Amino acid sequence: MPSWASSEATRRSMRANRGRDTGPEMAVRSAVHRRGMRYRVNTRPERSLRRTADLVFRRAKVAVFVDGCFWHSCPIHRTRPRANDGFWSEKLERTVVRDRETTDALEAAGWLVLRFWEHEDPDEVAERVRAAVLSRR
Fold it and tell me: How far apart are CA 137 and CA 41, in angstroms?
C-alpha cells in the first residue's frame, strides 16, 4: 500500500506533529495555571465519549480545546497542501465534523465547550477560561 505522503520528507514531518503538549497548548496551560486555576490535561470530559479535551475543569464542567490552524481548518490561516489534495481535503473535513460532533455531545451532557485557535493570545484565552469556570461554580 503506498504512503499517503507525497515524499519521505513530508512523511517524516507529518509524523513528528504532536497530538498533545503543543506550544500553543502549553502556553495556554501555563497562563491558566498562573491565574491559580487547576485542571486535568488531555483527558476525556465524559468517560463514555472517546474524545479528549486539552484542559478539563470537572466540577465546573468546562472543556477547553486549543485547535491548530492547519488541522482544524482555521478560517483565517487555513491552508491546503498542494500534493494529495483529495486525501487532505477529506481528512481535514473529517476533523471539522468530528469537532462539531464533540462539541454537540459535550454540550448535550451539560458541558461548556470553549474552543480557541492556536494563534490566539494565551493570556486572553486564559482570562476567558477563568471567567467561564468561575461563572459555573
Answer: 20
Q: What cell numbers appear for 96 in the block?
A: 471539522
**Helical spans, DSSP H, in the chain:** 8-15, 23-34, 85-108, 122-135
| CATH superfamily label, 11-135 | VSR Endonuclease (3.40.960.10)
pTM here is 0.85
pLDDT, tens digit, 9 for 90 and up, residues 32-76: 999 999 999 999 999 999 999 999 999 999 999 999 998 899 989
What contacts 116, CB < 8 A, 6 or more positions away? 28, 64, 65, 66, 67, 125, 128
**Domain boundaries defined on the chain:** 11-135
Please state the length of the chain.
137
Among 123, 90, 134, 135, which residue's Cα sits nearest to residue 24? Answer: 123
